[in-house]
Structure formats: structure tokens, C-alpha cells
Amino acid sequence: MEMENKRILVEGAKxxxxxxxxxxxxxxxxxxxxxxxxxxxxxxxxxxxEKEIVLKHFLDSLSIxxxxxxxxxxLDIGSGAGFPGIPLKMVxxxxxxxxxxxxxxxxxxQRHIIRILGLKGIAAIHGRVQxxxxxxxxxxQFDMVTSRGFSDLRTxxxxxxxxxxxxxxxxxxxxxxxxxxxxxxxKIEENRYRLQKIGFFFLPFSSIKRSIFLxxxx
Length: 218
Fold this sequence. Notes:
globular; seven-stranded mixed beta sheet; Rossmann fold; single chain; alpha/beta; 24% strand; 8 helices
């Protein structure tokens, strides 16, 4: 990883309360190299350059770290090339992590990264959360369900509800959102969820706008 990109990753992580020691940084460096290499053969992500990967994948994934203090089990829906689940597992190793994606090649890449980084307590599953078998085996298991722009908020809440424990949290990671979408939040699944928090911020060292929405399962 180029020195400037290392600085962006290490200093950017600090803004979220994360200290990346040399061992963890080397793991991120290996993750980045493997992602670039695999991306030449199969289309894992439209983000191609090192700097974009550091900003739009690594730091964006780490941005929800401050919300995980009381979370023991987390499900990442539509995790693609492993985001945000794998970076979060790297900096919070005792977090029990499950990744799920409907695209086999992306799950194959997730499993490859999990293996070469030696991560424990993390599973990558090929499937859809609405599949009956998934619901039967994973229902009401998780403290938190998260995703990066997997779907619209209403669909995400509907899909996440059966997988959460009572009092569990849906955390939706979004880009810039419209005032209309925010206005409609008050009407989303009021009988099932309580809107707990809305957060807006820029990713460190960039002008990339991000939004976070937290809903608590009643």
C-alpha cells in the first residue's frame, strides 16, 4: 500500500476510535492486494484504485465501529467483497460475524480473505436472507443486522426483522439521502421498529457524504 494511502487508513481509522497497529495494517494491506488481484478476473467491485478502496470500502466499513460497543453478534447482508463485515471483524476480533450474499463468486472471495487472514468466528454464507432455510437456521439470532446500500430502507427493515433478537438493531449504511426519504422514515414499520438515531458525516480525507440510520426492534 502506498504511504499516502496508509496514512489515510491509519489516521482515518482514528477518527472512529480505532487504533491500527502494524499487524492489523498488514492484514488490511493483504486484503487490498487480494481485492485488486481478484477484481482483474471477476467483477467484485466497481471501486478500482487503492485510494478508492481505502476510502470507500475500508474506512466506510469502519465508520460504524462506534455503534458496536454492546454488540456481540452481527449479520452483514449483501456483503459483496466483505464490506463492512470483514474490516469490522479485523478490528473487533471477538465480534461473532456472519456475512451473506447471493452472488457465489463474492462469497468465494470472502471465504478466501477469511482464510488467508486467519479470522475466526466469522462465516460467509451463499444465499438470500428471505430464503426459508436461512430464516429457519438464523432467525432471531443477531444483536445487529447491517448493510451498505443493500436496498431501500423499508425493504431492509422487513428482511432484517426476523433475524434480529428482541431489542436488536438494524443499522443501514447509506450515501447522501433526500429530505423526502428522511420524512418517510417516521412511517416505516412503526409497529415493529423505533427509529433510534440518524447520523450524517463525511468520510475522512474526502468529500464523500455518508448517512447512518439505526432502528431498534420492539
